[in-house]
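Team,

Forwarding the record for the chain on the shared tracking sheet. I've put the sequence and predicted structure together so nobody has to dig through attachments.
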Amino acid sequence: MVNYKVLVIIFLLIQVSSFAQDKAQVPIPSDWFLLDPEKDSVQGVSAERTYETLLKNRPSKTVIVAIIDSGIDIDHEDLKNVIWTNEKEIPKNGIDDDKNGYVDDVHGWNFIGGKSGNVEADTYELTREYMRLRAIYDGNEKRKIPKKQKKEFEQYSKIKIKYEKLKAKNQEQYDLYNSLYSNVMSSTDTLKKILKVEKLTPELIQDFTTNEPSLLLAKAFLLNLYKNVDENTEIDTFYSQLKEAIDYYSVIVKYGYNTEFDSRKIIGDDYSNLYQKGYGNNDVKGPDATHGTHVAGIVAADRKNAIGIKGIADNVKIMPVRAVPNGDERDKDIANAILYAVDNGAQVINMSFGKSFSPEKVAVDKAVKYAEQNGVLLVHAAGNDGDDNDVEANFPSRFYLNGKEAQNWLEIGASAWGKDNEFIGAFSNYGKKTVDLFAPGVEIYSTTPDNTYKEESGTSMASPSTTGVAALLLSYFPELTTSELKDILKKSTRKFDGLKVKKPGTETKVYFSDLSSSGGIVNAFEAVKMAQKIKPTLLKK
């Protein structure tokens, strides 16, 4: 009934649960990312202080912010009033009224959908690169490789090893979690049936006596679980987290490392044509809009409706552009998503996604250059691997294939609420040269589909925290150039001179100022003060 092999992971889950309990003992405001260190003792962006003082009763202009992501619930109670509408498009008439190449794109566009449905999960770029190179080199390991192909062959050898290792590792994790869950549920159901109860308690299990070996094993298994989790409600949470882990690894195994899966059959485009327009559909929500909806809420959740949460920017229209599946986004889709956003008036584009390979980077570079030429700011999440982006590749990137650098790009790491040295996301990527600044990205409470709200962590949350401040600045100082906007956001960051923090993913202490080029955390209050000096009389009542 119970396989002791799976008990090893129970300790990891218990440790996670214990950490959550310890954190819960310290009351952190759910809107901490909006707050101010001086007034509220948390390292937020100081949005509330900024509105209450520097921007009180000042007029503003609407800013369009594109969110390239997994989709957005445009009917959410806290977002429906801030969703962009393409006024040139007549809804549901099946005609491309504004002649932009996209039919009925009333509230944005979905580049990972087709006539028959939407892509929810996709393979990883590692898998796709492995497949591409395998078709060229598999079986040729022993033959002499032409000199001009030697570098690519060596790359294939490394990718093959990495792919096979990660595929096996994740399959093992899935099998372990699935086995543990089966044993937990089997033990629970068996004892419920024997004891004739709907809910087990530690007392009931402890008092249960039997000589049956399998039942004794079930009893010991569950008592060990209860011993490490205090309340019955926490047991339910444990079950839920365990199921989430199974679902997580199931997607990785079924899609991420599956060389047989081809999402483009759903979309129906010619993927070899990187500059193809018009493919996709207008379903901007898609099958799972959790990530994108959460990101959108951080930027612009309705600040006037007295429900849910407040976003950072108070005069924004969110343009949903769906291009990110559960898996790795594709370069063609990201390139077209950027082009679509720029052509339809976006002034800031949030990009909370990333990957370690970019085989069609030429198309993405072209789109980034187009955004740069049109004065559109691109804000990108640095990644969640605890890596140094100065060393490890992370795409999309500000660096073009020709070695030049896009001047309209901000790369963002994740910070937390704590004082002293406790305000860096342990998962966050960093980089003295490649990461510009840090922003709130740990336990951020924001909108999720179907009028719900939840906490999420990641540089995916830090990026919109910065996007929100950028939109705020453009709203009140609309004549700021992209260069001025980027310069203000970097120079106005909150600094911590001489402070050492744990380098993400390690126990090593480093200067916080060495983790990004600005050495600070995004700061709306100081950014507005700086903007007032540059454009002091832009908007009047």
